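A quick word before the example. In earlier lectures we treated sequence and structure as two separate objects. From today on, think of them as two lines of the same record. Here is Mitogen-activated protein kinase written that way.
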Amino acid sequence: MALCGTTNVTKMMAAYNGGSSAVAAHHPHHHHQLQHLPPPHMHHHHHHHQQHQHHLQPQLDIEPDRPIGYGAFGVVWSVTDPRDGKRVALKKMPNVFQNLVSCKRVFRELKMLCFFKHENVLSALDILQPPHIDYFEEIYVVTELMQSDLHKIIVSPQALSSDHAKVFLYQILRGLKYLHSAGILHRDIKPGNLLVNSNCVLKICDFGLARVEETDEARHMTQEVVTQYYRAPEILMGSRHYSNSIDIWSVGCIFAELLGRRILFQAQSPIQQLDLITDLLGTPSMEAMRTACEGARAHIVRGPHKQASLPVLYTLSSQATHEAVHLLCRMLVFDPSKRISAKDALAHPYLDEGRLRYHTCMCKCCYTTSSGRVYTSDFEPVTTPKFDDGFEKNLSAVRQVKEIIHQFILEQQKGSRVPLCINPQSAAFKSFISSTVAQPSEMPPSPLVWE
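And the structure line, produced from the sequence above:
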């Protein structure tokens, strides 16, 4: 996976002589192979538009299709969009209307996927036509198809240069700055939720655990969030309130994992997870533990006093330079109020090269003309207004939410494109229908109950 060269910035586009940018979506065995980064003007696919676009509801014919992932609350398949022949991802959200909690969570995720407009955040391209409301049980969302994810890439034998680390970290933080500006906490940032294409473009996905930030500190927030290895110390210590800085902790863990090609804090239990963190950061001050529950504070206080051992981060790999470790240490801060924000992290000099590379030959916000590259005025955009979750306030019954979601999907489709529906006759559909969601082991484990 060679990246486009940044040897001479002004000649960056001209100097590019990258390899083919064939998309690997059809070839499962190519999945982890990240290819050269072509300049953007080289990969516009000219699809022959179908002649019969006036026929209503072309069916999503799932022929050579296959499951590509199992998320917290859904199954994802790769399919062909019959309107333009493009491969897309189709996510099935099953058993949506089992109970009110499930209804609300799915509606929130659906609203978010339709709200997002950012290159480093996965968003809904379409939602399939729902059947008559009496038969409405699952929701199918179409998103862009990505070829791999950061977990698969990190565990693969493929070489990752410091340029890869920079361009991946840049995009993670760029997407996170956007999400946080919308007032959204992702709450499950981990390598498997960072989708990556063969040209190294990265998108944050899986908003099944995401929520709007809680400004009232008296209101309790669930602790059943974030896969354990990436879980911030305040959640491990039973804090009943937390902020978007939990996502930054997760990014710090991933940054270290990109550098060292292994999980930074890989513990067997939440208590051991906390102990591994304090082995590295040292014993936290009482001030840093102010939001923790009593039992967790007692565990730290009665344990041995530990000195910080942060210089050990230099041993992650030869890519763990002074700049890299400096930024990493700003993310892996015990006290959430002192942890760096996504916006400030993006201003760190370590990410200058990642920004340059991304906007020179990967992004869609800048473009190339005959006289050179035209750069956007805003490299890391935010969103205004924020995502509004006020719609959740009055949801009180399953049937009511079902009707609202049904109407929401129909309204999403007004006039934009020919609506799509599933082809129930296709062989793949029957297998798709019966496919299940993630097993309990893949879910974030339950929180620790501190005595």
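Notice the following. The chain has two domains: 59-145+395-442, 150-374. We will return to this example when we discuss secondary structure assignment.
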